[in-house]
Write a structure and sequence with these properties.
Keywords: ATP-binding, Nucleotide-binding, Transport. InterPro entries: AAA+_ATPase, ABC_transporter-like_ATP-bd, P-loop_NTPase. The protein is of the alpha/beta class. The chain has 12 helices and 13 strands. It has a 6-stranded mixed β-sheet, sandwiched between helices. A hairpin with a 2-residue loop joins strand 1 and strand 2. Helix 4 crosses helix 5, helix 8 packs across helix 12 and helix 9 packs across helix 10. It binds adenosine-5'-triphosphate. Adenosine-5'-triphosphate binds next to strand 2 and helix 1.
């Protein structure tokens, strides 16, 4: 478990991390997100005692890293810049680490097996591919059988098999009741791996939440509904404050454009005294509607209360990437210039 309280790091005038507080709990994978330069690596380095905070504290299992009697048993880390002696074999690299940390030889074979490096364990690490190097880095992190893992961009440059392997490893590790803090710029991968999120920008906490809530909040309450009585349902929903539009749906039996009853152009919004007949008119005979402003659970309850059958009730969620881009837009330090035309910036 990791607890950061008021963590701050300044490099001269530059504030890399400012008053950052969060908790990385056991039993879940926590994604650490932020645009380039947000302060993720600096934060991880402070947690691991590699950088001295200017202010605040970072605790692992209740103690600062430097006060842990057997740090490798508490935390294993893979930081972006890997320090592997290229002339040593994987097994010798792990042996050197094990000897300086009082870890038994048997554990070396276990972690080599665990990360799938058995066939190359006695080959020079300098000749390793990027993926093999990452596996060796993870083997080093796992050596002390730690209760917490910290990984900075572990899937960078890995092939799909390697990415999936790390995903399964981290989820399995968390399922054993251990804590995992992992940073990545690959949002689609993060969405599959993490269940909790810490999002920072310009060194400050933006959100500490679950992936599901983060995506839900960024999506707004947008729900796709299919019902044979969509117009009647629309009336009820508008009365409750929702905005309703006929949703394009190839399966819907919409009359041809211009036919009486099909006027979906203007969304139905909440009005103090809505002319509810207009609601049905605007939805026409559409069976599919998009509802903004009410949660799907509420829509389901209202439909049930009104005796209206629902054939589909689907919250429309944005991707984690879209949610991240929206929420960190103002916290981006380095932005790309908009391409001026074909061939620009390429
Ligand atoms: N040793 C240093 N001296 C001065 N500034 C530094 C130092 N280390 C980091 N910084 C600055 O602190 C800020 C945070 O950097 P950090 O590497 O922690 O961000 P990050 O979120 O890990 O970025 P990335 O996603 O690009 O890896 C950046 O503006 C960086 O330039």
């Amino acid at each position: 478990m990791i607890e950061a309280r008021g963590l701050t790091k300044r490099y001269g005038e530059k504030v890399a991390v400012e008053d950052l507080s969060f908790t990385v709990r056991p039993g879940v994978v926590t994604g650490f997100l932020g645009p380039n330069g947000a302060g993720k690596s600096t934060t991880m380095r402070m947690i691991l005692g590699l950088d001295q905070p200017t202010g605040g504290t970072a605790l692992i299992d209740g103690r600062p890293y430097r006060e842990l009697a057997a740090p490798m048993r508490h935390v294993g880390a893979l930081l972006e810049a890997r320090a592997i002696h290229t002339g040593r074999s994987a097994a010798n690299h792990l042996l050197a680490l094990a000897q300086t940390h009082g870890v038994g030889r048997r554990r070396i074979d276990e972690v080599i097996e665990l990360v799938g490096l058995r066939d190359v364990a006695h080959k020079r690490a300098g000749g390793f591919s990027l993926g093999m190097g990452q596996r060796l880095g993870i083997a080093s992190a796992l050596l002390g059988d730690p209760s917490t893992l910290i990984l900075d961009e572990p899937v960078n440059g890995l092939d799909p098999e390697g990415i999936r392997w790390i995903r399964d490893l981290l989820r399995g590790f968390a399922a054993q009741g251990r804590a995992v803090l992992v940073s990545s710029h690959l949002m689609s991968e993060m969405a599959l791996t993490a269940t909790e999120l810490i999002v920072i920008g310009r060194g400050r906490l933006i959100q500490e939440t679950s992936v599901a809530d983060f995506v839900r909040a960024a999506s707004g309450n947008r729900v796709f509904v299919r019902s044979p009585h969509a117009a009647a349902l629309a009336e009820m929903l508008v009365r409750e404050g929702a905005t309703v539009t006929a949703a394009p749906d190839p399966a819907a039996s919409l009359p041809p454009a211009g036919a009486p009853g099909r006027q979906p152009a203007a969304p139905l919004g909440h009005r103090p005294d809505p002319t509810l007949d207009q609601a049905s008119a605007a939805i026409g005979t559409a069976e599919t509607i998009e509802v903004v402003g009410l949660a799907s659970a509420r829509i389901g309850e209202l439909a049930r209360a009104g005796g209206i059958a629902l054939h589909e009730l689907t919250p429309r969620l944005v991707s984690l990437e879209d949610a991240f881009m929206n929420i960190t837009r103002d916290a981006v330090e380095f932005t790309n210039a908009a391409p001026a035309g074909i061939g620009a910036n390429r």
